UniProtKB/TrEMBL annotation:
Keywords: Oxidoreductase. Residues 17-280 form the NADP-dependent oxidoreductase domain. It comes from Trichoderma guizhouense. Pfam families: Aldo_ket_red. GO terms for biological process: D-galacturonate catabolic process. SUPFAM superfamilies: NAD(P)-linked oxidoreductase (SSF51430). The record marks 78 as: Lowers pKa of active site Tyr. This is D-galacturonic acid reductase. It comes from the Eukaryota. InterPro entries: AKR, AKR3D, Aldo/ket_reductase_CS, NAD(P)_OxRdtase_dom_sf, NADP_OxRdtase_dom. Substrate binds at residue 109. CDD domains: AKR_AKR3D1 (cd19121).
Length: 309
C-alpha cells in the first residue's frame, strides 16, 4: 500500500508514517534521520526534551544536501514542560537546533508545568528528588501561548500530546484554535478507543506513539500480531504499524537501524478479520485489567487516562 497522508483540521497534509527520535542517541540519530528521509520518510518526530535536536538538525541538513526538499518533510517538535509558560522561547531553541525557520507541527509535550526557575533546564527536582511540578498551573494558559505562536509562522500547526479525553474536554471550550493533533501512546495493548473516538468527533488527528511497545519492541511477539503477520506474509512490525493507519491515525516508529527504518515504512491494509483479532486481544487485556502503558513519566499527576488514575 502506498504511503498515504491525512488531512489535518487546518488543511495541512500529514504523512501516515513518521520516524521517531526519542532515545535515539546523538551519535546515531543524524544518520537515522538522513537515511530515513532519503529512503521515503516524509515525517520526523522530535522534541526539545529528547536532547538530540542538534543531531536531528544535522540529519535534516544532510538529507537536504542530498536533494530532499524542506517542503517535502513534515517536521514535528514539542514544547517541553519547563517551557509551557514561555512557548515561543522553547520553540526558538528547537528551531535553532534543527537549523530551521519553521516546523510543521508544534505540540504541547505534556499538560503539566515543571518549574521554569528550578534546578535543571528540563528535569528540575525538589530536595526530596521528586519532579518540581507547579501544581496550580492551568494547561489552558499554555494553549493560549500555543495559539499566539501559531501566528508567528514559526509553526504551521499546533497540537497537543498526552491529552486524555478529560483534558481535551477542559481545553476545547477555551480554544480559539482546536488542536490539529493529539499524540498519544497507542497500540493493541493500549487501544485508547475512547480518546481516538473523541478526537475523531472533534477533528483532532491522532498520532500514535510507541506502536511497537517502545524500547525493545515487546509487542512484536504478541500472539495475534504474529498470527496476522504470518497469514499476510509480512513482519509483525508491519502489522503493528498498519493497525494505526487502518484506524485513520499517523504512526511513529523509532529506529536507528537502517534495515528496520526501511522495513517500518511497509504499511498494508488490514481487513476486518485482522482488526477483529487485534480488537479481541485488546478487549481481553482490558477485561483482565492488563492494558499496558509503556510511557508514564513520574510527574505525580493524574492525567485522566482511564488505565492510570
Ligand atoms: N509524545 C510523547 O510523549 C511520546 C512520543 N514518542 C514518539 O514516538 C516515537 C516512537 O515511540 P518509541 O517509544 O520510541 O517506541 P517504538 O514503539 O517505536 O519502539 C522503538 C523500539 O523498537 C525497536 N525497533 C524499531 N523498529 C523495529 C523493527 N522493525 N524490528 C525490531 N525492532 C524495532 C527500536 O530499536 P532500534 O532503534 O535499536 O532499531 C526501539 O528499541 C518516539 O521515538 C517519539 O518520537 C514516544 C513516546 C512518548
Ligand atoms: O516523548 C517521550 C516521553 O514523553 C518522554 O519525553 C518522557 O517520558 C520524558 O522522558 C520524561 O521522563 O518525562
Amino acid at each position: 500500500m502506498a504511503i498515504t497522508t491525512f488531512k489535518l483540521n487546518n488543511g495541512l497534509e500529514m504523512p501516515a508514517v513518521g520516524l521517531g527520535t526519542w532515545q535515539s542517541k546523538a551519535g546515531e540519530v543524524q544518520t537515522a534521520v538522513s537515511y530515513a528521509l532519503q529512503n521515503g520518510y516524509k515525517l520526523v518526530d522530535g522534541a526539545y526534551c529528547y536532547a538530540n535536536e542538534d543531531e536531528v538538525g544535522e540529519g535534516l541538513k544532510e538529507a537536504f544536501a542530498a536533494g530532499v526538499k524542506r517542503e517535502d518533510v513534515f517536521v514535528v517538535t514539542k514544547v517541553w514542560a519547563t517551557y509551557n509558560t514561555r512557548v515561543e522561547e522553547g520553540l526558538d531553541k528547537s528551531l535553532k537546533s534543527l537549523g530551521l525557520d519553521y516546523v510543521d507541527l508544534l505540540l504541547v509535550h505534556w499538560p503539566v508545568l515543571l518549574n521554569p526557575n528550578g534546578n535543571h533546564d528540563k528535569f528540575p527536582t525538589l530536595p526530596n528528588g521528586k519532579r518540581d511540578v507547579i501544581f496550580d498551573y492551568n494547561h489552558v494558559d499554555g494553549w493560549k501561548q500555543m495559539e499566539a505562536v501559531l501566528k508567528t509562522g514559526k509553526t504551521k500547526a499546533i497540537g497537543v500530546s498526552n491529552y486524555s479525553k478529560k483534558y481535551l474536554e477542559q481545553l476545547i471550550p477555551h480554544a480559539t484554535v482546536v488542536p490539529a493533533v493529539n499524540q498519544i501512546e497507542n497500540h493493541p495493548s493500549l487501544p485508547q478507543q475512547e480518546i481516538v473516538d473523541f478526537c475523531r468527533e472533534h477533528g483532532i488527528h491522532v498520532m500514535a506513539y510507541s506502536p511497537l511497545g517502545s524500547t525493545g519492541s515487546p509487542l512484536m511477539s504478541a500472539e495475534p500480531v504474529v498470527k496476522i503477520a504470518e497469514k499476510k506474509g509480512v513482519s509483525p512490525g508491519t502489522v503493528l504499524l498498519s493497525y494505526h493507519v487502518s484506524r485513520g491515525s499517523t504512526v511513529l516508529a523509532k529506529s536507528v537501524t537502517p534495515t528496520r527504518i526501511k522495513a517500518n515504512l511497509e504499511i498494508v491494509a488490514l481487513d476486518d478479520e485482522d482488526l477483529k483479532l487485534l480488537n479481541a486481544y485488546s478487549d481481553d487485556l482490558a477485561s483482565k485489567g492488563e492494558l499496558k502503558r509503556y510511557v508514564y513519566p513520574p510527574f505525580g499527576i493524574d492525567f485522566g487516562f482511564p488505565d492510570k488514575s
